Amino acid sequence: MPEIYSLSSEHEVADFIKNCNSEEVPIEIIGHNSKSIGRLIQCSKSLHLKNLSGIIEYFPEELYIKVKAGTPLALIEIELDKKNQELSFEPPDMGFLYTGQSNKGSVGGAVACNLSGSRRFRAGALRDHILGFRGINGKGEIVKSGGTVVKNVTGYDVSKLITGSYGTLVALTEIVLKVQPKNEESQTLLVSNINLKRALNIFSKSMQTSVEISGACFYPAKMSKFFKLNDLDTTTSITAIRLEGPKISVVERINTLRKLFDEYKKTISVLENYQSRIFWKNTTDLQFFNNSKNIVAKIILPPVNTDQFINKFENEELKYVVDWAGNLIWVEIPENDSVLLRQLRTEVTKLAGHMTIIKAPNHMRIKEDFLTTVDENIKVLSLKIKESFDPKKILNPGKMYSGI
Amino acid sequence: MSTLAMPKIDQSVLNDKDSIVRDLKKFTNSINIISDPEGITPYETDALSAYKQKPMAVVLPENTEEVSDILKYCHKNNIKVVPRGSGTGLSGGALPLADCVLLGLSKFNKILEIDFENRCVVTQPGVTNLSLTKAVEHNGFYYAPDPSSQIACSIGGNIAENSGGVHSLKYGTTTNNVLGVEIVLMDGTIMRFGGKKLESEGYDLLGLITGSEGLLGVLTEVTVKILKKPQSVKALLLGFQSVEDSGQCVSDIISGGIIPAGMEIMDKPLIKATDNYAKAGYPKDVEAILIVELDGTESEVNILIKRVEEIAKKNKSTYLRISKNDEERLRFWLGRKAAFPAIGDMSPDYLCMDGTIPRKKLAEVLKEITKLSQKHGLRVANCFHAGDGNLHPLIMFDSNIKSEMKRAEKFGADILKYCVKVGGVLTGEHGVGIEKRDLMCEMFNDEDIQQQLNIKQAFDEKSLLNPGKVYPILHRCAEGGKMHVHKGDTKFKDIPRF
After folding, report:
1. What are residue B103's DSSP bridge partners?
2. What's the start-to-end Cα distance of chain B, in Å?
3. What is d(CA A209, CA A172) in angstroms, rounded to the nearest whole number?
């Protein structure tokens, strides 16, 4: 078991990493330990940032919040909600997937994994909402970039590089996120009992209009059983499209879509505000794979290739849900089926996409790559970037790629 | 011309000029190489025309392989390379060096694929920003970032600078709208970051190179996302008796849960200047005007207009007009878009600054600017992208009076330092380039800058690609920060600047 160091100030983190660097001791960085994404690594020391917590400043009219990296995401959302604001990239609650219970984890963990919810294709990913950060690089130096304003081109955009770097470049200490007003109304147009191809066609057609949809997902039959919503038919496939904004506008746009998809009029229904919000929260939080004991992966494809991909694996033991208007497929495959896992990876690469393993048994997390990257040049460049922050490779070594 | 320390000239490279030019002809058609003094003159500056320097030679490659071969050759032979798009940049990012090969991307001027199904366009980097929208508007789509120079600036340059525009509060800047690039590193390695899919895995290399001002690689292909045009767009023209009231109105609109497509404030000196110049019909008896543009569905826009109207009244607006049609809406913008030429008409020279500040600090910063204006004895007018906090003070001076240029530069630097002091940044959208390079220490300490230089090393270990830009040479902090316009004579005086 690694020695645990639970630190509560930036200064302590800097000193700790400086010492580890001089002794060349690798460190695993942990926020709230709510996720197990990435390769399984063994370090003699583990740096816990749960106590580096608190909101530093929040100015609703300036549309940003500055927090310490270990601050619980849930706490941030409560504070924003008081001012009728939110993080519009909808950070998912991965706790359901890992333990069957809500645990949103820390803001630093969300940034390190660049996790975004169902609104991603409209509102952007977490990486589009980070305005600045402070952190400690592998030499124990304080590194900062960005600020609190949305328009800023002063120096490289290091905030984006840090986002999704799985703690391999810096231990985050402070984060500035853009916040947005909450939508007054959310409604969901449902089409039941159609296949994926038709669903994707509906997504595409909707995106060709000016109705501004902010959610578009597809549940095959059997995948939606977990929903407990009165107005949702879970006996067939579900194709769902979300509209948000002022109520009058949402109603108007729903009607526009109803007309556009007149051919499905017998199977179209609408989820009103309350149920609509629950539907998308459940979807964003991956509740369809609640407490999964299997391998769960996130597949990103150009949306026109999504149907072809799923067809290829029609006869396999593969469960899936499509989100982000066809750009994202969540898949679950049996725990020990590394053959199928490799087939998925090969196919996804062929179709210009990539696959990230989100959950896997520990023995697989040691031997399997959890990212797809095959381009050798990207690996070489990534290693150089890693070394520019962390020359002795002590921060989460091997978490992202073996050797990085 | 102002003087500025640039990287030491490599005399051995200059001595080899003839053989280098000969060698370059192996990599591309010889008509694509320009080395005669007359031919290279158009490349001696970008839109920051106070700085001029002829390059050793200009190369205009035609495809990715040629770019790769040229960079590989320059890398091997330690020759500096300065990349250039359309040359409309305002911070001197494409200023050549005496011993450099200037790599122009003007022949990369074709749109390669329009993909409505995946809602993206694949294009060569030399294509102008506006041509992207022109190419997709027949289907009701557009490319969102709209820097003021969009009729002339290239999409590759937009990525290099992370260009914004007046709608970035709602639609983001370039970085939020680019999906993928093909990039050639200084050693000739050809790579792809991102693509038609929504995101990539591993380090966000696409995010890193966006806004890197041509220091990390040369773009040879770009994929951007396109959006469907909103159903309805309307604007309000509001007048206030104090800048504070207009600023408070902006804060209240945002705290009220409204994110307008664009919000612009102009102060009295600028209202007067633009009204004389463009006859935009702005109210004359106000201290500040605020333009608020809203988009969405017809009914949504109508509701929002009403809400903004109420907020404006609560903030003591003394003038209010709502656009009845597109023509009137564009007239609201007319004066604002004529701001730069209008100032050019009032003063032989002006410097345009580009700080970003927290919105709530607007009144405080404008007060400080007025104080500084008296201190330096120079007039100033201000326009403000209020939605995203981007402030463009226009400092008026006469370069024929020697001391005035110096005073204007000092004035500009003082403004930017104050922007940083109140929690803002040096540059919102024009880039650091050479212009604000020596002010970087106002925002970053040595460790921050060293970390960024280390990132540069990962891409370009010999520091041959666009050296001398963005980061201070020897970390020296001096005065800087300006776009100098003499007698309205910008490099691209006919394109709008706002």
Report:
1. B59, B83
2. 24
3. 41
What is the spatial distance between Cα B298 and Cα A73, in angstroms, rounded to a whole number? Answer: 36
Show the tokens assigned to A53: 């917590």
pLDDT digits (tens, 9 = 90+) for B58-116: 999 999 999 999 999 999 999 999 999 999 998 999 999 999 999 999 999 999 999 99
Torsion of CA A135, A138, A139, A144, to 10 degrees: -20
B113 touches chain A (CB under 8 A): no
SS3 A359: strand
Length of chain B: 498
Q: What are phi and psi of B281, to 5 degrees?
A: 75, 30
pLDDT digits (tens, 9 = 90+) for A297-322: 999 999 999 999 999 998 888 999 99
- Collapsed DSSP state (helix, strand, coil) of residue B259: coil
Average pLDDT, chain A: 95
Average pLDDT, chain B: 92
Which residues does residue B114 pair with via DSSP β-bridges, in sequence order? B121
- pLDDT, residue A91, reads 97
Q: How far away is chain A from the Cα of B19, in angstroms, using its nearest Cα?
A: 31
Q: How many percent of chain A have pLDDT more than 70?
A: 100
Q: Which residues of A touch B424 (CB under 8 A)?
A: 147, 149
pLDDT at A327: 97
Return the residue matching tokens 């002590």: A394
- What is the spatial distance between Cα A303 and Cα B117, in angstroms, rounded to a whole number? 8
Beta-carbon contacts of B392 under 8 Å, excluding residues fewer than 6 positions away, are B339, B352, B353, B354, B382, B383, B384, B385, B498
Instruction: Give the pLDDT score at A370.
Output: 83
pLDDT reading at B350 higher than 80: yes
CB contact under 8 A, A128 and B228: no
Please say if the pLDDT value at position B319 is more than 60: yes
**Residue contact A164–B203, C-beta within 8 A:** yes
- Closest residue in A to B167 (Cα) is A151
ipTM, two decimals, is 0.96
Whether B425 and A149 lie within 8 Å, measured CB to CB = yes
Least confident of A220-224, B98-102, B275-279: B275-279
Q: List, in order of start, the domains of chain A with CATH numbers.
A: 48-181 (3.30.465.10), 185-284 (3.30.70.2190), 287-378 (3.30.70)
Does residue B348 sit at the A interface (CB-CB below 8 Å)? no
Domains of chain B, CATH where assigned: 11-104 (3.30.43.10), 111-228 (3.30.465.10), 232-337 (3.30.70.3450), 341-486 (3.30.70.2740)
Q: How confident is the model at residue B462 (pLDDT cuts 50, 70, 90)?
A: very high
In 3D space, the residue among B43, B49, B50 whose CA is nearest the CA of residue B96 turns out to be: B43
What does the alpha-carbon distance between residue A307 and residue A326 come to, in Å, rounded to a whole number?
Answer: 9
The residue written with tokens 């496939």 in the block is: A237
Number of H helices, E strands in chain A: 13, 18
Q: Describe the crossing of helices A376-389 and B446-459 by its angle, rounded to 10 degrees.
A: 160
